[in-house]
Amino acid sequence: MCTSDSGSRIEAIRPGAGPPAGAAPPELLAELAIANRILFHQGVVDGFGHVSVRHPQQPDHFLLARSMAPALVTPADILMFGPDGEPRDAGGRAVYLERFIHSEIYRARPDVMAVVHSHSPSVVPFSVVRGEKLRAICHMSGFVGAAAPVFEIRHVAGDTSDLLIRDRRLGAALAAVLGQDVVVLMRGHGSTVVGNRLRQAVFRAVYTEVNARLQSEALRLGEVTYLSEGEAAATSATNDAQIDRAWQLWRMRAEN
């Protein structure tokens, strides 16, 4: 995975006040912590990448771990962030530089309840190869649709940036390219996946990586038959009813 990740560049935050994670429900904090570990065990994140969830009591806020490797996140490591990506309860702990990915998508998409940003290795090539889009290739990844959009940071930051979403302006530009889609690729960087609940976002992040791997293999064999728009919609709806089955398996593996 790319080494120029958000997690490798952190920002020190002065001590703040207030209870951890804005007094979010303990069960949600526990689920967000395990989501981090699931994404690690499924090969979506390694030492870098992050997953957030919208705060259930304050929908203009969101919950995200402090800056650390996802596999090590516990409920005590989760912080609350405000609408502009500002930490509310960091207490001197470092936060992810690319938290603006999350804040600006939540601002632009009221339907989004969870966001995963990663550099999953099979996805990155589709962000840089011209003429080959990431498309839904199997029934488990119908949510990808006809073609995942690609965010070109040069259009906003020029050609001397480090490719990271360092501020609200870049976050808003990324959210605009995502539009109403589920997956947005980030050229030379990775991808961001959204869901209407945390488990759905994790499921989609896992199968975005699976889809990219399968698509790469299929392209080596010859001409590929992709899912039609109707098939993509139907398979996505069916899988949304089965997410908990995968979640329980992934959770068991992540906890052992």
For this structure, the quaternary state is single chain
- Principal-axis shape equals globular
Q: Which H/E pattern describes the elements?
A: EHEEEEHEHEHHEEHHH
For the CA atoms, what is the radius of gyration? Answer: 17 Å
Kindly state the percentage of residues in helix. Answer: 25-40%
Q: Counting H and I runs of at least 4 residues, what is the number of helices?
A: 8
Helix-strand category: alpha+beta
How would you describe this structure to a colleague?
With 256 residues, the chain is an alpha+beta fold. It has one domain: Class II aldolase/adducin N-terminal domain (L-fuculose-1-phosphate Aldolase), CATH 3.40.225.10. 37% of the residues lie in helices and 13% in strands. It has helices at residues 26-41, 99-108, 124-128, 154-157, 168-178, 198-221, 229-240, 243-255, and strands spanning 10-11, 50-54, 62-65, 78-81, 95-96, 114-118, 150-151, 183-186, 190-195. A seven-stranded mixed β-sheet has the order 4-3-2-6-9-8-7, sandwiched between helices. Strands 1-5 form a two-stranded antiparallel ribbon. A hairpin with a 7-residue loop joins β2 and β3 (62-65). α1 (26-41) runs parallel beside α6 (198-221) and α1 (26-41) crosses α8 (243-255). The chain starts with 9 loop residues before the first strand and ends with a helix.
